[in-house]
Automatic annotation (TrEMBL):
Molecular function per GO: DNA binding
Family annotation (InterPro entries): Cro/C1-type_HTH, Lambda_DNA-bd_dom_sf
Species this protein is from: Paramicrobacterium agarici
Record's protein name: Putative transcriptional regulator
Keywords annotated in UniProt: Coiled coil
Length: 492
């Protein structure tokens, strides 16, 4: 097996910053140009050209056009998918490996890629990395499979800026069908939407505990719980409607289950907060430099988490603002995460973010120390990759308190209300001395004198129920449907 097989994407036409940067360097050298002369042609400093050639910055289309002209080629010529030299491929693969979560988890110093580093040495490093990656994969149990699926889906979401155009179009068509012209979606309109699709609603007290709703396609009924404490009463119904509209089959694995849930939740959110109305509202707020998740929540009468999710769907595509999103348990453990603003979440060697503990100096954890839980909490945080601004809010759920945070890079905070906050902290994570290790004095004093009893999450010890990907008890579901279909004398 070639050492490149575990490091180079299967789709060779999918160019990344490393490949583009290497091609720019190759064309520059062929032209006999220095970084200074190329920088002068596009009005950039030589240091910025070096950053570009080293693949450490994503380029906008306008910049690519300028570089292509300066290098005497076309945009297609600059982005051509043909492979580079064998040496270039090896160097790109090694750089990609060093930027990956597995290599970084080893806490090894960066390995400079110089001419003196032979091809054989690079191939050896890549082979060892591939074997180590395979070993982690082989040892992975069911929870790790779920985390890998999460990692893959999060990468896809980042690539599309967490915006699903087809789902936005479906939501717009559904809302148009019931004459909803914009603004908040009322409970009455939600019921009209189910009637438009041919379903009647039935609120019952004996819904199986493993379900949020049950859709009976045979009799065109949607069953919902009588009591929906702590949740938006529209949410479960819209998710059931979304699953029906999308025609989702029973998931075959956790990856299928996760993708279906993301698409279902996205469509439900797009119905609650319609794109056209939301973009108009957010655009006006941006122009006034008053962007606020709280205002989006209040305007569309949704929960804070729904508003935060919806903001990430629309912020980059329509407002040109990269963002990140975090849902963090009071223990500091990440429940959900998304980013396209290059913030660095804590990750395990396989790149999984969910289940990792976020830095205690981030807004997502600092908000738990604030007594006032009604007012928005904002904070600047100086991180190894730059300064970020976040707004956070605490949401209570049956399984505990969670902070929901939306943040962006310092350059984009000018559009947000709360940018004048004086809270500013510093995070050195993933450096373990930042907040993961006790002080030397505390360690000396308490070493061998403290023995805490851990609270284990039972889900860490159990796989999915046998024969079920979703964890739903089909016996309960089918018995439930039989009971509630009793108005029909025989099964159809």
């Amino acid at each position: 097996m070639s050492p490149l097989q575990n490091t180079v994407p299967d789709d060779e036409s999918m160019l990344d910053t490393l490949t583009i940067g290497r091609r720019i360097r190759k064309l520059r050298l062929e032209q006999g140009m220095t970084v200074e002369s190329l920088g002068a042609k596009i009005s950039r400093a030589a240091s910025q050209i070096s950053v570009i050639e080293n693949g450490k910055r994503e380029l906008k289309l306008v910049e690519l056009h300028k570089l292509a002209r300066a290098l005497g080629t076309t945009l297609d010529g600059l982005l051509q998918p043909e492979p580079l030299s064998r040496r270039d491929e090896l160097e790109i693969a090694l750089e990609r490996v060093q930027r990956g979560p597995l290599y970084q988890s080893l806490h090894l110093p960066p390995l400079p890629i110089r001419k003196g580093l032979s091809d054989a040495a690079i191939e050896t490093i890549l082979r060892l990395h591939g074997e180590l990656e395979q070993l982690h994969t082989q040892r992975a149990a069911t929870p790790e499979e779920a985390r890998r699926a999460n990692t893959e889906l999060r990468a896809e979401q980042r690539q599309r800026d967490n915006y699903y155009e087809n789902l936005e179009r479906i939501a717009a068509d559904l809302l148009s069908a019931i004459g909803h012209s914009g603004g908040p979606l009322s409970q009455r309109a939600t019921a009209e939407l189910s009637a438009h699709l041919g379903f009647t609603l039935h609120y019952v007290a004996d819904l199986p505990v493993t379900t949020r709703s049950i859709t009976d396609h045979r009799h065109h009924r949607i069953y919902l719980p009588v009591r929906q404490t702590g949740t938006d009463p529209r949410s479960a119904l819209l998710q059931a409607i979304a699953a029906y509209v999308l025609g989702q089959p029973e998931p075959q694995d956790y990856g299928d289950l996760l993708r279906q849930r993301v698409e279902t939740n996205y469509l439900a959110g797009a119905l609650l907060v319609p794109e056209m109305s939301a973009v108009d509202f957010l655009s006006r707020a941006k122009n006034a430099r008053e962007l606020s998740v709280e205002d989006l929540r209040d305007h569309f009468a949704v929960g804070y988490e729904t508003a935060a999710h919806r903001f990430t769907n629309l912020a980059t595509r329509h407002l040109d603002i990269p963002v990140h999103f975090l849902k963090v348990h009071s223990s500091g453990v990440i429940s959900k995460a998304y980013q396209n603003d290059d913030v660095q979440f804590p990750a395990d060697p396989l790149g999984s973010v969910e289940g990792q503990r976020v830095c205690r100096w981030w807004s997502a954890r600092q908000v738990f120390d604030v007594e006032d839980r009604l007012s928005p909490y904002q904070q600047f945080t100086d991180k190894p990759v730059g300064t970020y601004w976040c707004t956070s809010s605490i949401q209570s759920a049956p399984n505990g308190d969670f902070s929901v945070s939306v943040g962006t890079q310092f350059a984009h905070v000018k559009w947000f209300r709360g940018r004048d906050t004086r809270r500013r902290l510093t995070s050195r994570c993933p450096d373990p001395t930042c907040c993961r290790e006790p002080s030397r004095d505390s360690s000396t004093y308490w070493n061998g004198q403290a023995w805490p009893s851990a609270r284990l999450n039972s889900s860490l010890l159990a796989a999915m129920p046998d024969g079920s990907t979703s964890g739903i008890d089909k016996v309960d579901v089918y018995e439930f449907l039989d009971r509630h279909a009793s108005t029909h004398s025989t099964r159809d």
